[in-house]
Amino acid sequence: MVLCGACASASFGGFFSAHEASVSGEYPAEPVVPPQPTTIELEYCKACGLIRQVPDRTIRLNYDRIVRGTAKQLPDYAEEIFAALPRLGVQSTDLILEVGANEGTFLRQLRDRGYQNLLGVEPSKGLADYSRQSGLDILDTYFDQRLAAEIRATRGPARAVICRHTLEHVPDIFEFTRAIADVLADDGVSLIEVPDADWVVTNLFAHEIWDEHITYFRTKSLRRLLERCGLSTIELRRMRFRDTRNLLCWSTPAEGDVSLRRSAR
User: Fold this and answer.
1) Where are the domains of the chain?
2) β-strand pairing of 95-99 with 117-121
3) What 3-state class would DSSP assign to 242?
4) Check: CATH 3.40.1000.70 for 61-263?
5) Which residues pair with residue 244 across a beta bridge?
6) Taking the CA atoms of the chain, what radius of gyration do you get in angstroms?
7) Measured distance CA(53)–CA(212) in Å, rounded
8) How far apart are CA 57 and CA 42, in angstroms?
9) Phi, psi dihedral angles at 50 (to 5 degrees)
């Protein structure tokens, strides 16, 4: 039994199964033999409510080859995210790391607002190259604890880590989130944004359950995951975006600057 990545529980129950689900992610330029449909099978943690693909049947995609940009998906509440950074003490010269930078839209927005020390991590070679064309500093690899240690050694700890709509695609959410905690400065802040599973289940079941999403978070499961990784939640909000809803969670190292927790309220 693979324990729950959020709370380490071993108690899971069946949740959902789709035997003729479409495969997404890779879009060849020329017509080819249609891809075979896949099976998406989900289970839920009885302790914290986390929903995940059944571990021994998890669909794993090669994100090196995916070139689907998300520029048009920047939410209308993005201005609130940008405004939160100075409120939480992030200065223009502080290192800001975006994990899952896609084609660089969010980093360019930060640069336009005067932030000068920006770094992105994006496994898609095509999307990373596109970002570099606009002068962004991008590492085209997967983010893990090894890379977090390398960044910390060569660039210093990050004052802010931004991870938007990436965590739900990651097979090992504990190792990935632990890496975010590892790279953060003692007084750093992280933002994790994921789809809100409560909204998905209640309103958009078929729309948001797809092969690329390995994990679906509720507020309780997201808090538990951060706690296990040494991060303290300072602000957790539900935000509507088009016909769905997202969770936005700001956190700081558990032993970090308590003044950040006050400023987030």
Assistant:
1) 61-263
2) parallel
3) coil
4) no
5) 241
6) 18
7) 10
8) 9
9) -60, 140
